[in-house]
Specification:
- The protein contains 10 helices and 8 strands.
- The chain has an 8-stranded mixed beta sheet, with helices on both faces.
- By secondary structure, the protein is α/β, with parallel strands linked by helices.
- α1 (16-28) links the parallel β1 and β2.
- The structure holds uridine-5'-diphosphate and magnesium ion.
- Uridine-5'-diphosphate binds at residues 8-10, 12, 41, 69, 71-72, 75, 92-94, 96, 199, 204-206.
Length: 309
Amino acid sequence: MDISIIVPCYNEEEVMKIFHEKTTEVLDNMNVSYELIFVDDGSKDDTLNAIKRISVDDENATYISFSRNFGKEAAIYAGFCSAKGAYVAVMDADLQDPPELLPQMLDILKSGEYDSVATRRVDRIGEPPIRSWFARMFYKIINKISDTDIVDGARDYRMMRRDVVQAIVEMQEYNRFSKGIFGWVGFRTYWLSYENVNRVAGETKWSFWRLFKYAIDGIINFSQVPLSIASWFGIIMTIVAFLAVVWFVVRKLMFGNPVDGWASTVSIITFIGGIQLFCMGIMGQYIAKTYLEVKKRPHYIVADSNRKE
Ligand code: UDP
Ligand code: MG
């Protein structure tokens, strides 16, 4: 088997057929043996039936179907665990990842100079401006505070060699943030740029709120810096408090002790209370992640599949 293509699918009934047509057209012209691994991430619409129909006609098309929605990261992981190809690619089902790039990706890998070909889109045309702004901020922040390089505009559309896949499969963490994981495992990565393509049909599964939570997850999974914010606040507050004490003593000695200052006392108490809760919140986020990791729950549960393991 030359290439395994992993396709996470969640409520994609409108695009399955056209995705399959376009992608196999490209693959058939490449003269390689390949398998398509459709991972149905607990879709609530007719996606699974659409995939099953495809796999009846096309012997290269296989599927894994989850018992519920476990998220795109889990779907990709399931694909990685099951893929048999010498090269493994991840592609969205909505044709936002142009299949026309596959031959080029394979050539780059076959040249032997790179282990992994990643893609990034050079523009964010067709995206709401607020979302673009938040996305840019996210990449700025995470690259400042994390040791792992996370590229702005990077997509999950990639092709990589077996070794890279093996390294990713060995990272069994429960909280998976692919963009970070790909960066973390390293290897020689070639970046292909292309212009943003809109999805052919259906709707994005990522609401603003879901993306926001994903961004926070990414930061917490790949950086310990937020934790040290708590210590820094502590140090700064201690210095401020010390200076304040000195000032109060001096003022008492020089001017006596007029009884007032209720407002300032209350302000200080609420301010410090706020910072304390904020810091506890940060720690809580890490503890929650740790809690999920120690439970060692499976990443996904397979309800149906036609793959021979
Ligand atoms: N997806 C998934 N599980 C989810 C959400 C999304 O498998 O819980 C899949 C989805 O079917 C698609 C890919 O992940 O193939 C990317 O999703 P989408 O196109 O909605 O994201 P966008 O391209 O807008 O970032
Ligand atoms: Mg998409």
